[in-house]
Amino acid sequence: MTNLRDRKREAIPSVVLFLYSLSLAWPQYNAFVSIAAALAIVVIICFYRKEILVKLAAVPRLLYWAFGVFVCAVLVASLAIHDSASIAKAQNIIYWMLPFFLMYLLASFEKNKWLAAYYGFHLALLISNIIGLAEFIKTHGRVTGPYGHPNHFAMMLDILLPYCLFMAVNYYRSKNNRLLACGMLANSIWGVATLFLTASRGAILGILLGAYFCLILYGFRKILWQKMALIIVLLTCSLGYLGYNNMQNFHRSYDYERILLMESSYNMWNDHKVFGVGLANWEKEYQKKYISPQAKEKELDMPHNIIAYYFSTTGLIGGIGFCILMLGIMAYLIKNSLGLSLNVVFCYAMLLVAIAVTIHGLVDVGITMKSAARFFYGCLGLTVGVISCLDDKK
Question: Nearest to residue 338, comparing CAs of 214, 213, 221?
Answer without folding.
Answer: 221
